[in-house]
């Protein structure tokens, strides 16, 4: 296609029509693939070509404008190129404005970061368009800070909006930020609140990163909002968006004085300035001194082999431990610390003695607060609690489950109860390996066992393994070493762990309302029940547990919190895996059919990606079950 | 084969309170009884007779508030004591008297022991912590006039002075003060001019105690961490770190160098007294007798070297007295 430059008034509207028609028919890739690079080159320095290009796009009829604009934004290699190609189209044409400022940002969320950069960069490059940029930012912030959006929109959309916000912020200049400072601040406060309220860690992190970035932009000097969270690729990517390539953040170089401050032995450094009141560097002892007659040789050292680190002795008996832990004497904190460290092993070594005082010990541990800055205090306490629970399961589980629903406990304490129950259940249901409990995966992820942090991944792995083990059983042969078999200790106590937890969930207390505000604890409770169900495989109570669990899930299936829904779906998985197929068929057929239709619904319509995946998994499990029963 | 560490020669009991400070006075001529002064947490200063191993006198001058520093001023007849009642008392103990002749009111509330230096016959300089947080005040005794106040520069953030040592190179020269502070640094001050000559950061934690050997221009400081720091003073009056020594357990309450500069003793929070050779800081012995933190150690000033003793006072209310390396 060749144009005659200079002086001639060509009418390009026919070309615009062609372009529009082609784009609307979905052939954007082909035509723009050729057109855009050509136009990029031509418009680089030639204003006439720029104007021709602008004319071209402006003349596209409104009904095809969207497709054309979308195509250009996606295809342009950079914001400046887009600016050259489209000119002030967004200001002049209403449809284009709608597409760029609202449709692509708020209604769609599938575009890549590069496209976002193009779009927002384009808006920032011209003074006429900058007002649009500010308006876009305001609308994005409104969406980000609305609590219903946070609760109901998919995580991917929220990520998209967060990215857009950060890119906008990176383009804003000082006076613009000043003018909308108040709104930025209000949106940030509201948005942060909604995000932190969410039960999903990914959303919380998104909220934290965006809030930190907004705060950074608002106060460039002075204290900035800083959250503590684990960095991962997503957060790093988000943070990198805040800085545009002509970066103006210079890393301040540390003054030289700081280096030489510490006096470290055996490093020969050149002594620095001899100014007064300056910290001096290390000097190696002069060689000459050694040549002197060493009268120290006359002094013969005594035997110092007994000189070891001072260790505070921990008590040797459980009752002594109880005394130390409940003692009001704040003096002997060393002994208290030593007791806390030694408690777990003492409990395990003296099961008979522990059984005498098990409930008392459980009570003390539940209320134990950190007195000194002991490392790993939370873990030590939890391990001691698990040890007590496994040594004397029935009374202690009765105590703990009753306390879960009692007044005046903090949320943290209630969640601790759930964690301890899960860990103890896992320990009890694990086959003992040579007399010692097989602690394979239990120790390290002590608190992470409840898949609260990384919901679907761990579960899917476990469930997949289970499915695999069920289907390939006849393949295994003799290569597997048989584990020593022994009675399942969890069998006799599974009911004590499970049923009290499920009993009172719908009865609100003054300080604790599972169905109301405390949906985080409800989520954790549901996940706990799923794990307990899973661990109850091969126990006598498993069918009864299954029925109760199914009723429980049915009552809560429309809960608004996606973390709770994920838990409910995990419950169904555990149920399908643990309860023997014959019992499911015999006792729970109608309920299962209803569940199946509910799962289908979830799989199609639930906004949360993890929920949909879990629902699909459950449907597959049900299919397997049916096939197995038909095969019989 | 190294010998096991020796046992204490004797142990003094009877203070009924933790012992915070000790001072020997055994240098007198023959008919004089060698004495050991001890200050305790119950406010009493006990005068121990080292021949009978019993308390000769108990001095009560600090209103039952802990006494944390005791020093003699030219002989055993004049005693200076510092207590938590914010008073420094001067006692007259000649001919059996037990009266407080004078006292200095300290505006500082803390634990920093004062340091005495005899500058002329009947005249002493005393360094003590002053009212303002980082300052040290030098007084002349017995006139109690203030010689100067040593203020660190603004923004130095040294914290409280923790331990002081006044010394002079020889009898007529300028008195100098070494002060260890809460931030772990040791500062050398020129007293007459009132300004700091050098500062060295020796520790990450507060300096608990220090001692200095003016002949070798070397000093040692201990802190609440596991490291002992040895530093030296060069010709330009600058402090430099010479060496550090790592201990088995953290925490040193007191350090003292024996008058003959051959060995030094440290009092540890781990209930142990450690002896080192001063020349190269060679560990010589670990004396493990006490059952609680050792608060103070002190060497005696016997004129006969063979009679020299080391005393250590501890929170377990006992004073252990040792004869160690007395033969050299």
Automatic annotation (TrEMBL), chain A:
Keyword Cell division set for record: no
Specify the Telomere length regulation protein conserved domain's residue ranges.
315-425
Keyword Disulfide bond among UniProt keywords = no
Report the InterPro entries cross-referenced here: TEL2_C_sf (IPR038528), TEL2_Regulation (IPR051970), TELO2_ARM (IPR057348), Telomere_length_regulation_dom (IPR019337)
Molecular function via GO: Hsp90 protein binding; telomeric DNA binding
Keywords from the named record:
Cytoplasm, Membrane, Nucleus
Q: Which GO terms describe its biological process?
A: 'de novo' cotranslational protein folding
- Indicate where this protein is primarily found: cytoplasm
Q: Which GO terms describe its cellular component?
A: cytosol; membrane; nucleus
Q: Where in the cell is it found?
A: Cytoplasm; Membrane; Nucleus
Q: Which residues form the TELO2 ARM repeat domain?
A: 129-224
Q: Which domain of life is it from?
A: Eukaryota
* Family recorded in the similarity comment: Belongs to the TEL2 family.
Descriptive protein name: Telomere length regulation protein TEL2 homolog
Its gene name is Telo2
Automatic annotation (TrEMBL), chain B:
Tell me which InterPro entries the record gives.
Answer: WD40/YVTN_repeat-like_dom_sf, WD40_repeat_dom_sf, WD40_rpt
Q: Which gene encodes it?
A: Gnb1l
Question: What stretches of residues are WD repeats?
Answer: 200-241, 287-328
Protein name, per record = GNB1L protein
Family matches, as PANTHER family: GUANINE NUCLEOTIDE-BINDING PROTEIN SUBUNIT BETA-LIKE PROTEIN 1 (PTHR19854:SF1), TRANSDUCIN BETA-LIKE 3 (PTHR19854)
Q: Which Pfam families match?
A: WD40 (PF00400)
Sorted alphabetically, the keyword list is: Repeat, WD repeat
